[in-house]
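Board notes (copied after class):
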Amino acid sequence: MQLYRLERTQILPISQLEAWRFFSQPQNLPRITPDWLDFKINGFAETDMYAGQVLRYRLKPLFGLPVTWISEITHVQEPAYFVDEQRFGPYRFWHHLHRFEPVEHGTQICDVVHYALGYGIIGHWVRNWLVAPRLESIFNYRRDTLTSIFGENTQDYHGRCN
């Protein structure tokens, strides 16, 4: 099984606590997800985030076909980070670390996703041809939407997640 990594960093001109409050509310996830995924939360998202929380979504990642995605929030360290892991869904493995670090001009939002598709060479080909570009598109949309919600950080930053 080939494991892939996607890492994104963005600094928003908001406090760590404000970032935590936004990202730890599952109801905000549809706001930062592209419309073409037709993303819907189907249950279990009515409370603040906690370790052990199970979330169920429906989305249409390919050809308009609906897919159920069930994830568990496995780690929570308020207001610094949380981890969601897929329990059922389109990936063979999905581990997503969301980290929030105060920096001089706001909060660094750091996403580190490790994922696997399975299916050997076919999965590798599908990942390169379809999955990786779509994930890039999803995270680009997220970056642009967060900038429109919270404003743009005017500081030039090219750092990586620690």
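Comment from the instructor: The chain has a mean pLDDT of 91. The chain has one domain: 4-150.
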